[in-house]
Amino acid sequence: MHKIQHVATFIAFLSRYEIRDPHLVEESVLKTLKERTDFDNYKPRPFNMREFYDRTGHDIKEMLLSCSYRGMECSAEHFKVVTATDLNLQ
């Protein structure tokens, strides 16, 4: 459940921890959403961006449809993941 709590406000799902526009949601769905967004006694573990990225990120080989740099074709092998650590942004 901590995923919802951490990202819900960023995607406008929650507004002050209340479900937005409940009149647009089917009753059974609204009930489930209310249960899953009840954070009154919830103690989330600390958010870890690396863990979140590893679970939700996509492999560039799956996403790159075509690539060209200065007129030459390139591929996923020409890219690498760059983290804040690589950039000394800790």
Describe the model:
The model has no long low-confidence stretch (mean pLDDT 77). The protein is elongated. By secondary structure, it is an alpha+beta fold. A two-stranded antiparallel ribbon has the order 1-2. The chain has helices spanning 2-7, 27-36, 49-56, 60-63; strands at 14-15, 18-19, 68-69, 72-73. This is Acid-sensing ion channel 1.
Summarize the structure.
By secondary structure, the protein is of the alpha+beta class. It has helices at residues 2-7, 27-36, 49-56, 60-63, and strands at 14-15, 18-19, 68-69, 72-73.
Question: Can you tag this structure with a few keywords?
Answer:
4 strands, Acid-sensing ion channel 1, two-stranded antiparallel sheet, about 30% helix, about 90 residues, single chain, alpha+beta
Give the topology:
Elements: H1 2-7, E1 14-15, E2 18-19, H2 27-36, H3 49-56, H4 60-63, E3 68-69, E4 72-73
Antiparallel strand pairs: 1-2, 3-4
